[in-house]
Amino acid sequence: MPRFAVLVGCSPAIVGIRDLIDRLAASDASVLITGPSGSGKEVVADLLHQRGGRAACPFVAVNCAAVPRDLIESEIFGHQAGAFTGASHVRRGRFELADGGTLLLDEVGDMPADFQAKLLRVLETRTIERVGGTTAIPVDVRIIAATNADLSTAVKAGRFRADLFYRLAVVEIALPSLAERPEDVPLLLEHFAATIADAVRPRFAASAVAYLGCQPWPGNVRELRNFVARAAAVHPGCEIDDALAAVLLHGDRRQVDHWLSSGSSPLPMPNRRRPPPIVAAGDVIDLRALLDDFEQAYIRDALGKTAFGVAESARLLGLRRTTLVEKMRRLNIARP
Ligand SMILES: Nc1ncnc2c1ncn2[C@@H]1O[C@H](COP(=O)(O)OP(=O)(O)O)[C@@H](O)[C@H]1O
Ligand SMILES: [Mg+2]
After folding, report:
1. Is residue 294 scored above 80 in pLDDT?
2. d(CA 177, CA 162)
3. Contact 317, 310 (CB under 8 A)
4. What is the 3-state secondary structure (H, E, C) of the chain?
5. How many C-beta atoms lie closer than 10 Å to residue 138's C-beta?
6. How much is the pLDDT for 157?
7. CA distance 256 to 238
8. Which of 35, 51, 166, 174 could form a disulfide with 25 if both were Cys (CB 3.0 to 4.6 A apart)?
9. Whose C-alpha lies nearest to ligand 1, atom 18?
10. Does residue 130's CB lie within 6 angstroms of at least one atom of ligand 1?
């Protein structure tokens, strides 16, 4: 994420959220940020931190879905040397690292039940105990939680503690999907294009902007960001019209591959031995997420075209069936 996050958009929802962030930044109230994946939850969390009185102290994020269940306690609370096999040194957890600042508990809905109880106690006592430790360590941390799951349903189903939910959701900020705010698409295209080096920066013709404004964007703003990066990689420095945008977005794989491998693109191609910089100095791009999105777009496309035929899709994608199944599991692609 760039050093200074910005929440771009002119839709009433985004304007309202920017206003809410300004009003909430100075307070220490716990905020729950909800919204589908890629809708900007981390941007909102970052802004709440940067705009508030804790900006000089650390902003620490932990993705509760990505930490293995048996490690989550030591990850968040730290551990003493010898607390368990492999714990050779004292380790400060995320709470201690965030002291004075803000801790973002991302994908908080995936937190194991026994850990939810421990977290609640920490929020109530404002002290933590490292795993294997015996002393209570005071911590001064603002908590922001984020989730793409419907936590109140999880509460009703007994998967998430109601008392923890009310502690975390003192204020809720709900980010709509990008499809629900198409008026933000032109500004976002411009914003992400501006982060790309001049020489390869794509320009979007009015026809492309109109076309892109009515796409479903299942991956939300993240998908749009990656779309702009893909446009710069495949058609560096070019004007993208609606037809090119459609191919780039819906991934006619043979067409894109043909352009990339033969250099026969109707448009100038990058020198493949030394690719042009597609990231401007100072910007940070998440290559792994970009590749995941790219892979995901092709897999979904193939599955869509084969009525979810896994074997047939694997053939279309040039993958072994088991490899495709493995990728679908990793990317969370399930039969609709
Ligand atoms: N309104 C926005 N303005 C500018 N960039 C945004 C906006 N919303 C999301 N982004 C960018 O899109 C990507 C995904 O956003 P992120 O906050 O990580 O989504 P989430 O946490 O909801 O999955 C990030 O690169 C982020 O900087
Ligand atoms: Mg996120």
Report:
1. no
2. 26
3. no
4. CCCCCCCCCCCHHHHHHHHHHHHHHCCCCCEEEECCCCCCHHHHHHHHHHHCCCCCCCEEEEECCCCCHHHHHHHHHEECCCCCCCCCCCEECHHHHCCCCEEEEECHHHCCHHHHHHHHHHHHHCEECCECCCCCEECCCEEEEEECCCHHHHHHCCCCCHHHHHHHCCEEEECCCHHHCHHHHHHHHHHHHHCCCHHHCCEECHHHHHHHHCCCCCCHHHHHHHHHHHHHHHCCCCEECHHHHHHHHHCCHHHHHHHHHHCCCCCCCCCCCCCCCCCCCCCCCCHHHHHHHHHHHHHHHHHHHCCCCHHHHHHHHCCCHHHHHHHHHHCCCCCC
5. 9
6. 94
7. 15
8. 51
9. 42
10. no
Task: Encode pLDDT of 83-128 as tens digits.
Answer: 888 788 899 999 999 999 999 999 999 999 999 999 999 999 999 9
For residue 87, the model assigns a pLDDT of: 80
**Contact 295/327 with Cβ under 8 angstroms?**
yes
State yes or no: pLDDT of 191 exceeds 70.
yes
**Ligand sitting nearest the alpha carbon of 191:** 1
Quote the ligand 1 centre to 158 CA distance (angstroms).
Answer: 30
Q: Ligand 1 within 6 A of 173 CB?
A: no
Q: Which atom of ligand 1 is nearest to the CA of 191?
A: 4
pLDDT of residue 265: 44
Q: How far apart are CA 248 and CA 240, in angstroms?
A: 10
* Tokens representing residue 286 in the block: 């998440």
Q: What average pLDDT does the segment 291-303 reach?
A: 83
**If pLDDT is split at 50, 70 and 90, which confidence band does 2 have?**
very low
Residue from 300, 321, 298, 309 nearest 252 by CA:
298
**The residue count for the chain:** 336
- What pLDDT shows up at residue 268? 38
pLDDT digits (tens, 9 = 90+) for 228-281: 999 998 888 999 999 999 989 986 555 555 655 555 444 433 333 334 445 555
| Mean pLDDT calculated for residue range 40-60 | 95
Tokens of 45: 């969390």
Distance from C-alpha of 175 to C-alpha of 37, rounded to nearest angstrom: 10
